[in-house]
Structures are given as structure tokens and as C-alpha cells.
Design a protein that fits this description.
Chain A has about 425 residues and is an alpha/beta fold. Helices cover about 40% and strands about 15% of the residues of chain A. Chain A has three domains: about 220 residues, NADH-ubiquinone oxidoreductase 51kDa subunit (Rossmann fold), CATH 3.40.50.11540; about 90 residues, Roll (Ubiquitin-like (UB roll)); about 100 residues, Up-down Bundle (de novo design (two linked rop proteins)). In chain A, the strands form three sheets. In chain A, strands 8-7-11-9-10 form a five-stranded mixed sheet, with helices on both faces. In chain A, α14 runs antiparallel to α17 and α16 runs antiparallel to α17. Chain B has about 180 residues and is of the alpha+beta class. Chain B has two domains: about 60 residues; about 80 residues, Glutaredoxin. Helices cover about 45% and strands about 10% of the residues of chain B. Chain B is built from eight helices and four strands, in the order ααααβααβββαα. Chain B has a four-stranded mixed sheet, covered by helices on one side. In chain B, α1 packs antiparallel against α2, α2 packs across α3 and α3 crosses α4. Chain B is globular and about 50 Å long. The mean pLDDT of chain B is about 95. Classes of the chains: A alpha/beta (about 425), B alpha+beta (about 180). At the A-B interface, α5, β3, β7, β8 and β11 of A face α2, α4 and α5 of B.
């Protein structure tokens, strides 16, 4: 399995020019999966849900939850509106993959979302894209209009009684709106304060109605599953975390970018072969494997580790969004951690005290250490703070802020201690 | 005297189209603030009032939304707002160096605006272009990738001539050379 990736043919963003043009997408087999499930009697909504559940598409937005299982949580239709909210907020530092789908293969995502809508008997789909992606919002508006003009969106698709609306809307600069319930608040036109769960969105989502939230890349995997079957998907990549993955590789590498490969590619292959190694012939120091909230791994922890949930958990980190940030031997880990903490402090919505105050304390203490004014006991204060923040808030932003602090200090303790003043306690 | 603001007929048509996307009027708040900011260059309180009146929503609600999201300019900025990303990948690849180069070049600090009102500089959080670091976004619109001092010089010159850089498509790197190895 490990070296199979070299012969992998991309499916999310295949090497076909102008796939963003709807005619070209259709010519290459596009919208066939949608037509199949909507028109063929054998493809009941339940069958679509089961097929996707069986394929085990684990959410590509970071949580890694089985998408089909999530769909099955929707209550039975009661005649009222039901929503699918597609999460294109993509704001976790290190993550820049969904914009590739908007730009190069928007109809694959649109088709996947429409199939999801059929499976859950959704009446309206919204795609929420971060406000900074203005250029990509415009691309999606165009793609949706093209799909509407071809009759793939609107009333009575393929002459059946299945009708669905599909709209794009944008944020305005708030990381927290990538949190699913915050995104719902933002879609409703409010400040993006995450909601207390339960009730879960499947019970009470947009305007109090049943709603499912899926990531863009997750939905883009759906047409392939319908066309080729769950088994085809399950045979790609890692056993418990199958399918193609858009790896975003950035930082100190020779060839950064987004690469589509199977899940479970060895981390060192991605760094050394795919991204062509560390810049300037320097040594690798550390890797943040899946966006800034996933725990950093030292180079010596990466032997035999592959990019899938199981392997990364064993190594002491997480898959997250597969946004890999590579750091060379000259990287100052105190600086890196301070900047990450600044990010989470800036982006805390302020609703919960442990997060609002905790993220501020983390940043303040790290700034003090960065400036050479810290003491050894500040490191333990930071670690103590992380346990006081974790799991004590409405959403996971506090956790996302706490994990990098805990793991970066524990895994690079020497470097942090070296930056601290010798405290009286330490000398005694 | 407070300036007065009015939407054009075109703006009002756009706002109607936005409202039609949703079952209620409140969801139009964010997109309408965008229409306002693109029209007036900012969303200071009188503009927030206009948005509230146009949508028939409380001004307090619009103010709450405008102040939650960082991309809305609650105070006036320069004609070109240079949002330099300094979050992790950009930090690793010289984002701060680019920020300081711009600060020196324009004689202002991040958060400030040049006296002629042409440029503002901001140090911003991750813009989702990590593979093309360091980078910046200009006035909530186009991304400029893989910044160097020379590239910044060129961009500033072209902005002074009133020309926004074009959208730069960053392709998917091909793997062929690896596969054929």
C-alpha cells in the first residue's frame, strides 16, 4: 500500500483542462451519478445514504466523521424545509485545498452536494465560503448558474418530483465560522457564536430545521462513490480512512502546493518526494500534519508514520485537514507557537470565559517567553492553562488553542527552557 | 455634519436578489454589508444605519454583525488595503519580512494609512494560500502570491497607477515527473 500512491490517478481534480466549464464536465461523465440516483428506481434515498456510509468517506474538514453515518442522523421528512450547509470556510492555518475544488472542479462538488440533497431529501443547499475567497465565491456563483441553466438545480430534476435550490453565500473574516454551528449562525445573518449541542444540527439547524453540514472535499467524493461503488472507494488508500485526499503542503519545502493522492501516504514520501524535500538542503525539524490545531511532531517521530487517522493518532497527532506545515532545522519553535496562539486569541469569539481569557493568557505568556522575559514556571503555567481550557467550552476552539501549546512545549521543552530566564526557584 | 449615504438602484436590485436566497431577511445582513462596503469603502455607523433601514432590521443587530467580522471596515481605510498574511506558513516563509518591507516602503506601520489615503497595511490571520507563502490580499479582493521585495515594488507601482493585479491562478503541481521515476 505504502508506495501505491505513485500510480494513483486523481479523481477529485483530474488532469483534464477546463473541467470548470460545465459542458466539459458533462463530456467527461459529469452529472451522470446525479442522474442515476434521481432517475433510477433502485436508487432510493436510503440506498444512497447506505452506499455512502459503506464507503466510509471520513469528513475532510478535520473531524473525520463518516459522512454517510452523519446523513443517517437526519430525521424523517415532515414536509417542511430541510437544509444542507456546505462548509467552505477553510480557515484553519495550513489549509488551502477546498479552493482548488472551487477553481478546478466546482461541478464535482455541486454534483456531490445535489446527490447528498437527494439522499437526505433536502430542499435547499447553501455553500458558505469564507469572505476572503472573493475570487472563488465568484467562480462558484458562475458554476451554480451554469448548473441551474442546465436544469441540475431547481424544480423537478430530470422530470422527477425531486426539486432543490442551491445558493452560495460568503463570510466576512472569522475563523470561528468554520465551526459548524457558528457557520449556521453566520448563515442566518448573525455574529458567529457557536451553539450549544445538543440539539444537534440534524434536529435543529438552520432556522430551527433539520440541517446537515459537510465539508466541500467530503461532498466532492460522493459522485465517485455512486459511479464506482463503495468498494472502489474503500480500496483507495488506508483501510480505516479510505479515499483520495487533497494534501496541502506548505512551509519549508521545495515544492509546496495541493496534491491529490490516496490517504495513508507515508509522511516522509510527501515531504521528500511529493514536495521535493526541505528547502536549501536543510534538515527537517518538525511537522504540523493537519492544520495548526493538530499537535506538532518532531522529525524523529515521523518514521513509518502515514497520513491517516490511525497512524497519526499512534504517532501522537491527528489528520485534521491534511494541511501539512513543514519546518526546517532553523525554525524557532517558540516563535511558531506564539504566532499560533496569537491566531487563536484573535479568533476566539469571546462567548466562553475559558477560551476568551485562556487564549489571551496563552498568547501573553508566550510573548513574554519569546521576548526572553519568561521563567521556567511559566511553562508549567501554560500547561496548566491548557487543561483548564480543554473541554470546558461550547465549541472546540479552546481545544484547538490548547493542543498546540501542550504538545509543542512537551515535544520541544529544551528549546522553551533555553529561552526562559533562570528563575529563583530553578536556581534553588 | 454627518455624510449621507444612499444605495444606487443597482445596489438595491442586488440586495433584493440576496434577500431572495433566504427564507428570512436577517441572513441578508452579511451580504448587504458587503454591498455597502464595496459601494462606500467602509461601514462606519451611518452606513450600518443605511443597511439596517434598507433591510428593516435593528441598527444594533447590524452593528453587532459589522463589529464581529474583521473584513468589514468599521473605520475608513486607504483606497488599497494591503492585508499581509503573517500566520504560520507565511510566518515560516518570510511573511513578517514582507510586512516590514512594506511598512518601510510606505512609511507607515501595520494598522495605519498613508497620508494621501492611498494605502493601508494590515497584518492578518491565515488567508488560505499557505502553499504560496508569503502572500497578501488587496482590499478584500485579489490574492498576490509568492511575494518578494521586487514583486511588492511592482505591485505598489501598478496600484499607484490605479491598476489592481490580475487574479493569479496557482495550478495543481503535476506529479508526472515523480510517477515516471
Amino acid at each position: 500500500m505504502a508506495s501505491d500512491w505513485k500510480s494513483f490517478e486523481p479523481v477529485l481534480i483530474p488532469d483534464i483542462p477546463n473541467l470548470d466549464k460545465i459542458d466539459n464536465y458533462i463530456k467527461n461523465g459529469g452529472y451522470k451519478a446525479l442522474e442515476k440516483v434521481v432517475k433510477e428506481n433502485g436508487w432510493t434515498p436510503e440506498k444512497v445514504v447506505n452506499e455512502v456510509k459503506e464507503a466510509n468517506i471520513r469528513g475532510r474538514g478535520g473531524a473525520g466523521f463518516n459522512a454517510g453515518l452523519k446523513w443517517s442522523f437526519m430525521p424523517k421528512p415532515d414536509g417542511g424545509p430541510r437544509y444542507l450547509a456546505c462548509n467552505g470556510d477553510e480557515s484553519e492555518p495550513g489549509t488551502f485545498k477546498d479552493r482548488k475544488i472551487f477553481e478546478y472542479n466546482p461541478h464535482l462538488f455541486i454534483e456531490g452536494a445535489l446527490i447528498a440533497a437527494y439522499a437526505m431529501q433536502i430542499t435547499t443547499i447553501y455553500v458558505y465560503i469564507r469572505g476572503e475567497y472573493y475570487s472563488w465565491i465568484k467562480m462558484m456563483e458562475k458554476a451554480l448558474q451554469d448548473a441551474r441553466d442546465k436544469g441540475f438545480i431547481g424544480k423537478n430534476l430530470f422530470g422527477t418530483d425531486f426539486s432543490v435550490e442551491f445558493e452560495v453565500t460568503g463570510g466576512a473574516g472569522a475563523y470561528i465560522c468554520g465551526e459548524e454551528t457558528s457557520m449556521l449562525e453566520s448563515l442566518e445573518g448573525k455574529r458567529g457564536y457557536p451553539r450549544v449541542k445538543p440539539p444537534f444540527p440534524a434536529q435543529k439547524g438552520l432556522w430551527g430545521r433539520p440541517t446537515t453540514i459537510n465539508n466541500i472535499e467530503t461532498l466532492a467524493n460522493v459522485p465517485g462513490v455512486i459511479n464506482n461503488g463503495a468498494n472502489w472507494f474503500k480500496n483507495i488508500g488506508a483501510e480505516n480512512h479510505p479515499g483520495p485526499v487533497l494534501y496541502g503542503i506548505s512551509g519549508h519545502v521545495n515544492r509546496p502546493g495541493v496534491y491529490e493522492l490516496p490517504s495513508g501516504v507515508p509522511v516522509m514520501d510527501l515531504i521528500n518526494e511529493v514536495a521535493q524535500g526541505v528547502r536549501g538542503g536543510k534538515k527537517l525539524k518538525a511537522l504540523i500534519p493537519g492544520g495548526s490545531s493538530t499537535p506538532v511532531l518532531r522529525a524523529d517521530q515521523l518514521d513509518g508514520v502515514s497520513m491517516d487517522a490511525d497512524s497519526l493518532r499512534e504517532a501522537g497527532s491527528m489528520m485534521g485537514t491534511a494541511g501539512m506545515m513543514v519546518m526546517d532545522e532553523d525554525t524557532d519553535m517558540v516563535d511558531v507557537l506564539w504566532r499560533i496562539s496569537h491566531f487563536y486569541h484573535h479568533e476566539s469569539c469571546g462567548q466562553c470565559t475559558p477560551c476568551r481569557e485562556g487564549t489571551g493568557w496563552l498568547e501573553k505568556i508566550l510573548l513574554k517567553i519569546k521576548n526572553g522575559e519568561g521563567e521556567i514556571r511559566d511553562l508549567d503555567l501554560l500547561l496548566d492553562l491548557t487543561t483548564q481550557m480543554e473541554g470546558r467550552t461550547i465549541c472546540a476552539l479552546a481545544d484547538a488553542a490548547a493542543w498546540p501549546v501542550r504538545h509543542t512545549i512537551n515535544r520541544f521543552r529544551d528549546e522553551f527552557e533555553a529561552r526562559c530566564k533562570k528563575s529563583v526557584h530553578a536556581v534553588a | 455634519m454627518e455624510e449621507t449615504y444612499e444605495f444606487t438602484k443597482e445596489d438595491l436590485d442586488e440586495i433584493e436578489a440576496i434577500k431572495a436566497k433566504f427564507p428570512e431577511v436577517m441572513p441578508a445582513t452579511l451580504p448587504t454589508l458587503w454591498v455597502a462596503q464595496r459601494r462606500f469603502g467602509h461601514v462606519e455607523p451611518p452606513v450600518q444605519r443605511l443597511v439596517a433601514e434598507t433591510l428593516g432590521l435593528p441598527e444594533s443587530h447590524v452593528h453587532g454583525v459589522a463589529t464581529f467580522y474583521t473584513q468589514y471596515y468599521k473605520e475608513r481605510k486607504g483606497k488599497y488595503v494591503l492585508d499581509v498574511c503573517t500566520t504560520t506558513s507565511c510566518q515560516l516563509c518570510g511573511g513578517y519580512k514582507m510586512l516590514h518591507y512594506l511598512e518601510d516602503k510606505l512609511g507607515i506601520k501595520a494598522g495605519e494609512t498613508t497620508e494621501d489615503g492611498l494605502f493601508s497595511i494590515q497584518s492578518v490571520e491565515c488567508l488560505g494560500a499557505c502553499g504560496y507563502a508569503p502572500m497578501m490580499q488587496i482590499t478584500n479582493d485579489v490574492y498576490v502570491n509568492n511575494l518578494t521585495e521586487e514583486k511588492l515594488d511592482k505591485v505598489i507601482d501598478s496600484l499607484k497607477d490605479g491598476k489592481m493585479p490580475e487574479f493569479e491562478s496557482v495550478g495543481m503541481p503535476l506529479l508526472e515527473n515523480i510517477n515516471n521515476k
